[in-house]
C-alpha cells in the first residue's frame, strides 16, 4: 500500500483502511519500545494471526511469563473519549464507537480455547493498551483491563518486578503458537493496480515525493532536500518495482520508463548489470533478482 500510495489515487475506502493500518503500526511500534525495556524472563510474540475453529483472530502482543500470559490489544486512538456503561463514546459528539473491549475479550476467549486444545493450562489476562499521548478517556475504570498512556510505563515496570522463571513448557507454548501463525491476514488485500495506471518516477526514500535529477550522478528531493546517488535511487526503484510486479521481466527499457528521470539508457543498463544477473540474448536481455537480495 505504501508503495502504491504516491503513484496512484487509492480508492477512498482502501485509503482510509491504509491510514488506519499505518496508524495501528505506529501504535504497535510505540508499544514495542515499552515492552523492550523489560529485562525479566518473558517471551514476546508480536503480530500473531491465529485461527481456532474457523474463527480468525489477531493479537498485537503476547507476553508469556511464568504464571500467566498477557495479551495486549494496542490502540493508537487520539482525542477525548468517555467510558460509560462499558461502552466508549466520542466526548464531543457522544457517538458510540466499535467497542475495543469486545475485540479483546474475543481474542482472549479464542486463545484460551486454542491453548486448551493444545494441552496448555495457563491463565490469560487481556489488556487494552492505549499508547497515544493525545488520548484521554474520561471515567476510565481505575483498575482492570484498560491501560492509559500515563499508566503504561508503570505497568511494564510492575511486570519487570514480578518474579518469572521460564521453562521448556513456556517455550513450547510460544513454539506452538508461532507454528500456527497465518502469514497473510485475509483482510489486507490491495486495491487493483496495473503498470500503465501508476505514476512513474523515483520516489524519495524519506518523504515519498517524486525526485529530480541533478547532473548525471545525483537525484534530489525538492520537498525534503534529500540527495541520493542516481545508482542507489535506481536500485531502490527496481526494488519497489519487483515488489509491485513480481511477475514482470526486468528490462533496461522498462526500468528506464519506471524511473522516468534517468535519460541515459546506458546508465540504467550499467546499474542493472552490476547488481542483477543478466539472462536472455543480447537483444532480449532481462535481469533476474536473486531471492536473497
Ligand atoms: Zn523527500
Features of the shown structure:
5-stranded mixed β-sheet; alpha/beta; binds zinc ion; 2 domains; 22% strand; 293 residues; 35% helix; 3-stranded mixed β-sheet; single chain
Describe this entry's structure for a reader.
- The protein has 293 residues and is α/β, with parallel strands linked by helices.
- It contains 8 helices and 13 strands.
- The strands form 4 sheets. Strands 1-2-3-6-8 form a 5-stranded mixed sheet, with helices on both faces. Strands 5-4-7 form a 3-stranded mixed sheet, with no helix packed on it. A 3-stranded antiparallel sheet has the order 9-10-11.
- It binds zinc ion.
- Zinc ion (ZN) is lined by residues 204, 206-207, 209, 221, 223-224, 226.
Radius of gyration: 24 Å
Ranges with pLDDT <50 over ≥5 residues? none
Distinct ligand kinds: zinc ion
Oligomer: single chain
Q: Report the β-strand fraction as a percent range.
A: 15-25%
**What general form does the structure show?**
elongated
Total number of domains: 2
* Amino-to-carboxy terminus distance: 21 Å
**Main pleated sheet:** 5 strands, mixed
Given the structure, what is the number of helices? 8
**Element-by-element helix/strand order:** HHEEEEEHEEEHHEEEHHHEE
**Strands of the biggest beta sheet: in what spatial order?**
1-2-3-6-8
Helix vs. strand class: alpha/beta
Mean pLDDT: 92
The percent of residues in helical segments reads 25-40%
Count of DSSP strands: 13
Amino acid at each position: 500500500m505504501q508503495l502504491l500510495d504516491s503513484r496512484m489515487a487509492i480508492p477512498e475506502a482502501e485509503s482510509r483502511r491504509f491510514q488506519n493500518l499505518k496508524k495501528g503500526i505506529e501504535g504497535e511500534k510505540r508499544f514495542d519500545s515499552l515492552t523492550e525495556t523489560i529485562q525479566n524472563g518473558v517471551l514476546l510474540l508480536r503480530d500473531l494471526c491465529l485461527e481456532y475453529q474457523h474463527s480468525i483472530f489477531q493479537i498485537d502482543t503476547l507476553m508469556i511469563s511464568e504464571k500467566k500470559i498477557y495479551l495486549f490489544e494496542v490502540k493508537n486512538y487520539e482525542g477525548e473519549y468517555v467510558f460509560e456503561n462499558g461502552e466508549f463514546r466520542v466526548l464531543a459528539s457522544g457517538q458510540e464507537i466499535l467497542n475495543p473491549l469486545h475485540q479483546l475479550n474475543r481474542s482472549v476467549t479464542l486463545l484460551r480455547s486454542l491453548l486448551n486444545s493444545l494441552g496448555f493450562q495457563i491463565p490469560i489476562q487481556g489488556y487494552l493498551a492505549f499508547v497515544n499521548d493525545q488520548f484521554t478517556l474520561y471515567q476510565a475504570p481505575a483498575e482492570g483491563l484498560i491501560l492509559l498512556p500515563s499508566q503504561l510505563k508503570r505497568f511494564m515496570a510492575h511486570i519487570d518486578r514480578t518474579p518469572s522463571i521460564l521453562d521448556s513448557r513456556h517455550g513450547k507454548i510460544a513454539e506452538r503458537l508461532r507454528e500456527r501463525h497465518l502469514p497473510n491476514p485475509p483482510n489486507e488485500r490491495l486495491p487493483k493496480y496495473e503498470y500503465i495506471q501508476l505514476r512513474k518516477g523515483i520516489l524519495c526514500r524519506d518523504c515519498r515525493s517524486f525526485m529530480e535529477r541533478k547532473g548525471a550522478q545525483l537525484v534530489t528531493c525538492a520537498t525534503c532536500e534529500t540527495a541520493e546517488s542516481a545508482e542507489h535511487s535506481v536500485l531502490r526503484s527496481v526494488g519497489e518495482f519487483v515488489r509491485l510486479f513480481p511477475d514482470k521481466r526486468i528490462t533496461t527499457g522498462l526500468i528506464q520508463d519506471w524511473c522516468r528521470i534517468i535519460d541515459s539508457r546506458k546508465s540504467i543498463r550499467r546499474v542493472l548489470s552490476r547488481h542483477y544477473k543478466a539472462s536472455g540474448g543480447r537483444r532480449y536481455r532481462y535481469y533476474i533478482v536473486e531471492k536473497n537480495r
